[in-house]
Amino acid sequence: MQTARLLVGVLLLIAGIQPACSADKPLSFGVFPHLTARQTVETYSPLADALEKHLRRRVAIYTARDFKTFVERTRQGEYDILLTAPHLAWLARQDAGYRPLLKYAQPVRGLLVVKADSPFYAPDALRGRTIATPDPIAVVVLALHAELAANELSRNIDYQTTDSGTHLNAVMQVINGRADAAMLGLPSYRLMPPELRQQLRVLAETPPLSSLMYLTHPRLRDAEAQAVRKTLLSFATTPEGQAFMQRGGFGGFADVDGNELQAFRPYALQVQEMLRAPQ
């Protein structure tokens, strides 16, 4: 099943196709685009398989080509089950009524990395340099800009950024010598092949941030939402779920409360302003 899901899923992810409406329409599982399409399907297929088995309903994995598109699809309520960053979870609740279910227990950090043999050993050394970033509305990017500002480095004044689209692409800009440093999230860093991580050195990191959150659209009734929650918790206890958690460094599942989401309101409002700005 996983091979078939991978081949079909990657095509759907790239095309951005939603399944046709029908009585047996699959549950759409939207995963925010911090990984490539192939990585997304490979990583989340075991979880989708568990949901299919326990809910007795097909589950289709979707993402988007960029964060802006993903946020817009979320706002339109295209995903039944949503996995997204905490500041985007705040927007999902405000804009489309999504209800938080669970989050990954292990906090994440934003990492500022350079090549292993780089001459830079402190953030201040990047003054006048170029930093590759994944999508600029990623919470780890916003947090890292705040960290650099605390070191008296202002974006577009003391350093320039280049938007690479994904965490992996940002890292490759550094490895290939096209950027002096890169911003990325710790989960994406852990999922990279060891041969890539060996070529990098962490220069700075943010304080802990709440991890990715699972939410359900209000069109799923309470019983359906609770069935999804129960399935996720059950999956985490299986050998497949434990391998999934270990590979991603997710640390299992934990509850989400409203106060936690509220703490990300400032980042969410930044995202709103960025999305409204003319391109």
Largest sheet: 6 strands, mixed
Briefly note the CATH topology name of the largest domain.
Answer: D-Maltodextrin-Binding Protein, domain 2
Strand order of the largest sheet: 2-1-3-10-4-11
How many individual β-strands? 11
Number of helices: 12
Q: Which architecture of the largest domain would the CATH scheme give at its second level?
A: 3-Layer(aba) Sandwich
Estimated structural class: alpha/beta
Query: How large is the radius of gyration?
Result: 19 Å
**Proportion of beta-strand residues:** 15-25%
Poorly predicted ranges (pLDDT <50, ≥5 residues)?
Answer: 1-12, 14-23
What count of domains describes the coordinates? 2
Report the order of strands and helices.
HEHEHEHEEEHEHEHHEEHHEHH
The helix content is 40-55%
* Morphology: globular
Mean pLDDT: 89
Give the N-terminus to C-terminus distance in angstroms: 41 Å
How does this structure look, described?
By secondary structure, the protein is α/β, with parallel strands linked by helices. It has two domains: 2-107 and 210-276, Periplasmic binding protein-like II (D-Maltodextrin-Binding Protein, domain 2, 3-Layer(aba) Sandwich); 110-205, 3-Layer(aba) Sandwich (D-Maltodextrin-Binding Protein, domain 2). Helix content is 45%, strand content 19%. The strands form two sheets. It has a six-stranded mixed beta sheet, with helices on both faces. Strand 1 (27-31), helix 2 and strand 2 form a beta-alpha-beta unit. Helix 2 (37-55) packs across helix 9 and helix 4 crosses helix 12 (265-276). It starts with a helix and ends with a helix. Keywords: Signal. Residues 1-22 form the signal peptide.
